Amino acid sequence: MNLTRLGVIVNPRAGDGQGGRAARAAVSALAPAHVLVGAGEMGADVLVGEAPIQVLEWSPRTGVERTRWLATQMAAQGVDGLLVVGGDGTLADVAWALRESASAPALIGLGAGTANVGPLLTCRAAEAAALRADSLVCEDVPGLIAGVNGRDLGLGFNDVVVDATVLATVDGAMVNVDVADKLRGLNTPRAPIPVHTSQTEIWRMRNGTKQVVASADQVHTVIVGLPDPRFYGKAIAGGALLSSMLDEPAGCLVCDHLLITVHIDVAAHAASEPVVSRYAGLAEGDTLHGRGFRAGVALCADGNPLQCLQPADVIHVRAQRRLARACRLRRADR
Fold first, then answer.
1. Which residue intervals of 31-143 are DSSP H helices?
2. How far apart are CA 291 and CA 222, in angstroms?
3. What value does the mean pLDDT of the chain take?
4. Most CB contacts within 10 A, which of 10, 11, 58, 151?
5. In the chain, how many domains are there?
6. Quick one: average pLDDT of 37-55?
7. Measured in whole angstroms, how far is the alpha carbon of residue 125 from the centre of its chain?
């Protein structure tokens, strides 16, 4: 892969701030002739002494706005690849910024976040020094488009959920944090709660036909995700296995238990069983909708809260097979 001009975006808070060293190691290993990088903590501070760099000043933008702005600027200036150091959410933010670019560069995802499980990930931060430009292969990857009240808000390449919390790294540990505070850039620990009210309804639209998936207290957790090919032959995966067999790009799981949680009370969980879930596959052209959620929960994509919800809000999620370009390591190089 030609990487003469490399864009670099660093999430300074990913992995408790360990992404900077990984970015420097990756740039040194990839050896581009020229680097475009965000000012200060967004990458420039850690790349002093590396390849000739062009610093892009993002101020007064903050948070996700500066990440997306840097991505569009780097694409417009013709970078050959875009090294993104952060978690699944940071990578999804960059993909969202590039979604309408006629010449979007391929993403080189360096996992330094909390989960690091999405398909935009090229390798983990600890493997940065082993990257080589000639070992990278670009591929189209599927993903999810999520929004509220008819307006698209973001992309997910691992999952889209409705929840009161998301996972984050705090003091080196994975914890559930409040979605409203996360939107303000704060990681405030909070216990997850059910998302439903008596008016909650989840439904799929396919070829103009409405199919109700779940309602009311059946809806403690809502997850729209991308079936893993490894589900094939694993019957315990249930509906996700069927989506894998049918080559559906995504599916929705609704459960009457909390699934996105770090801590589980073993005795309380055993007393609450059985766990009942309902599943519907999503083909391209289908749309998953939901409404009637508890006030204050949020629509989240790859760990990014997109918008806090009120009961009258209607969410939507669609699947698309080719939503972004990402780099993989050749199998022999893994």
1. 63-76, 88-97
2. 11
3. 91
4. 10
5. 2
6. 89
7. 17
Specify the pLDDT at position 157.
Answer: 94
Tokens representing 6 are 């490399």
What range does the domain containing 51 cover? Answer: 5-141+323-333
Are residues 133 and 169 both part of a single domain? no
- At 284, list the tokens: 């391209």
Closest-CA residue to 79 (of 144, 32, 20, 129)? 32
CB distance 92 to 155 below 8 Å: yes
pLDDT in tens, 164-204: 999 988 888 889 999 999 999 899 999 999 999 999 999 99
Burial of 265 (0-12, 13-18, 19+ CB in 10 A): exposed
Average pLDDT (228-244) is 74
Residue 18 confidence (pLDDT): 72
Residue 312 CB neighbour total at 10 angstroms: 11
Return d(Cα 50, Cα 47) in angstroms, integer: 5
Structure tokens at 218: 């059946």
User: Is residue 100 domain-shared with residue 191, that is, in the same domain?
Assistant: no
Indicate if 316 and 328 belong to the same structural domain: no
What pTM, to 2 d.p., does this model score? 0.90
DSSP-derived secondary structure for 125-184 = GGGGGG--GGGEEEEEEEEEEEEETTEEEEEESSEEEEESEEEEEETTEEEEEEHHHHHT
The closest of 150, 148, 86 to 305, measured between CA atoms, is 148
